[in-house]
């Protein structure tokens, strides 16, 4: 189980990782592909904003379409039973759009 982490009184001790790439959601599959690669990662959305914002951009009939995101998070080894070697844990959604930059298709 993942949860949001709020540290209002503490300074971050490290610079957060910024992920830029293509996100796709459909029942049973949440994936992220960094720009310029052909590697997909499983996604864990620790604050539930990514799936919500995706649903606001993409109609239910089009679930599975990719959108461009910029997000803070961490890459971890996937849990047993996940079909991907690594998981991107999104801790903060910075940007989500259907407009995919030319260098990220």
From TrEMBL:
<dbReference type="Pfam" id="PF17185">
    <property type="entry name" value="NlpE_C"/>
</dbReference>
<feature type="domain" description="NlpE C-terminal OB">
    <location>
        <begin position="14"/>
        <end position="99"/>
    </location>
</feature>
<dbReference type="InterPro" id="IPR038139">
    <property type="entry name" value="NlpE_C_sf"/>
</dbReference>
<protein>
    <recommendedName>
        <fullName>NlpE C-terminal OB domain-containing protein</fullName>
    </recommendedName>
</protein>
<dbReference type="InterPro" id="IPR033450">
    <property type="entry name" value="NlpE_C"/>
</dbReference>
């Amino acid at each position: 189980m993942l949860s949001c982490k709020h540290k209002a009184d503490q300074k971050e001790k490290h610079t957060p990782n910024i992920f830029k790439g293509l996100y796709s959601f459909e029942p049973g599959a949440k994936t992220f592909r960094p720009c310029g690669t052909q590697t997909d990662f499983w996604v864990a959305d620790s604050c539930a904003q990514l799936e919500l914002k995706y649903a606001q951009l993409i109609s239910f009939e089009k679930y599975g379409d990719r959108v461009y995101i910029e997000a803070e998070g961490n890459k971890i080894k996937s849990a047993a039973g996940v079909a991907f070697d690594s998981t991107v844990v999104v801790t903060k959604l910075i940007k989500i759009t259907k407009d995919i930059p030319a260098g990220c298709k």
